[in-house]
Structures are given as structure tokens and as C-alpha cells.
Amino acid sequence: MRVLLTGYSGQLGHDAAAELTRRQIPFLGVTSREMDLTREAQVQAVLADYRPDAVLHCGAYTAVDRAEEEPERCMAVNGDGTRHLARGCAALGAKLLYVSTDYVFSGEGAAPYEVTDPTGPLNVYGRSKLAGEEWVRQLVARYFIVRTSWLMGHRGNNFVKTMLRLSESRRELRVVDDQIGSPTFTADLAPLLVELLQSDRYGVYHAANEGFCSWAELAEETFRLAGRDAAVRRVTTEEYGARALRPKNSRLSQASLARAGFGPLPPWQESLKVFLRDLGQGGGL
Ligand SMILES: NC(=O)c1ccc[n+]([C@@H]2O[C@H](COP(=O)([O-])OP(=O)(O)OC[C@H]3O[C@@H](n4cnc5c(N)ncnc54)[C@H](OP(=O)(O)O)[C@@H]3O)[C@@H](O)[C@H]2O)c1
Q1: Residue 87 sits in which domain range?
Q2: Overall pTM surpassing 0.85 (yes/no)
């Protein structure tokens, strides 16, 4: 199997590349420099040249708040870009694994979302990711759609790294306490994505670390484990006032993974510990 990996320079792409290497699966990792998803001719040329058996599509426009100000750009990358890739996969007969998000849901209630639940994105980013899902379903015969949430990884920026940085200069941080979801360590998710890609268990999945928390709880646990004494002031979504709306209930049911015979990812607290140790921030452990 030869794999084309998009988003090679991103958090998840970085760990996906490490996993492909570990399994000795030949792959070509691309960023927007080698293959700009918005440029269809370039996408088709890379696919025609490399002729992958499978595409692991981790590349995306991920700036959720900024997307509200440049919706066309966000849609061009996540919606149209995924359509270009899906068309190319269909022409080659290649498998496609598309990484999607909890933000395709509206977040009402408190029950974990099943893969069959109706979608209803609240923001531009969520709508663009859902458009990508729809193109994948329409155009590709052998596809996986894997919705995940709240990624944290070594490469690039994420909430945990931001909290650690801010705690160096502030004694108290305002953090949202009414959005509930699952932090997900990219080093846990990447092996599952590659395992799926090697299988023929096509379909839609939810995959995140086990357990749920709010952003404020994640910040508190981060400070506890890292031995920081910054205080967390819990605020509501409305009090925080981010530009993009976000679902309050981001809980993802992982029943689909279990049905397909895949084990759960570790509890988020365990993975946070490993992540912080890797960052050299395990001072409070
Ligand atoms: N971050 C989260 O909390 C989260 C939560 C749920 C789902 N997801 C999904 O998980 C996947 C991975 O997210 P991530 O956090 O690892 O992303 P990330 O760190 O923001 O990296 C994004 C990647 O996409 C590439 N990219 C951006 N625009 C592109 C374009 N026009 N053409 C080609 N490549 C482009 C970037 O390449 P350049 O370096 O060239 O810009 C980069 O490699 C995405 O599909 C995202 O929607 C993320």
C-alpha cells in the first residue's frame, strides 16, 4: 500500500507520518506548498504522479475563529479541496480517509453523538468540514470519515500548549466551562487511522480519547500535572465571547469503533500525562 498524506506539517499529520514510518508503509507527505488543496489541477497532478492506493487526508483550514471572517477561504480548502481529492481518489480507485470534527454537530443535549445523528454545524469551519464529508460520501466508493475532537499533539499549536504559555505571564486564566468534549492526543489517534486505512472496514467513525471534560477542567488538569499554580476562572461560552459559536455538547460516542472491532483510545487524563511528559512539563507528576 502507498499512501498520500495531506497535512504533513500539521499536528495530526506529523504523528500520522511517524506511524506510517513505524509500520514501514511507503508514503508521500504533502503540505500546501507541494499540493495546495484549493488548486484542483495541482491536486490531480500529484495524485496522477504518485498513484497512491490510499489517501490519509489530515490537511485542513483549522482556524475556527478566523474562518468567520474568511468563509470563502475556509470552504475552498475544506469543502472544495476535499472534493478535488475525492475526485482524484475515485479516478484512481484509491481509498480515502477524511478526518472530520465534532464541530459538524450543534451540541444540544448531553448525550454522546452517534455517527448516525443529524448534523447541524454552528460555525463556518463546521459547515466547511461537513461539506468535505458530503463530497467524500458522494464521490468515493471506499471511504472512511473519522470525526475527532480537541486535538493535542507535539507539532503546532493547541489548547494545552496555549494554557502552558499563558500561565507563564498570568496568575489567573478565564476558561470556558460549559463546552464538554474529549481531548484527543494525536499520538493515540494516528495509529488508529493507519489501522483503519489498512482495513476494509469502511464507514463513518467517531474517535477521541476516552472520557469527557470541559475546557476549564482540561486547563486545571494541565496545571496540576505540570505543577503550575495558575488559577482557572470558569466562565460560560457567552462570557468568554469567542468569535465563532461552538457546540456545548461535543461528546462523541465511540460505539461505531467498538462495533468494527477497534479498541478504545486511552482515557484523556492518561494521554495528557504522556503529552506533558513529552513536552518536559511533567513537573507535578
Ligand atoms: N485541531 C483540532 O482540535 C481538531 C479537532 C477536530 C478535528 N480536527 C481535524 O483534524 C485534522 C488535523 O488537524 P490539525 O490540528 O492537525 O491541523 P493543523 O495542525 O492546523 O495543520 C493543518 C494542515 O493542513 C495543511 N493545509 C492547510 N491549508 C492547506 C491547503 N490549502 N492545501 C494543502 N494543505 C493545507 C497545513 O499545511 P501548511 O503547513 O502548508 O499550511 C497543515 O499541514 C483536520 O482535518 C482538522 O479539521 C482538528
Answers
A1: 3-157+183-210+252-265
A2: yes
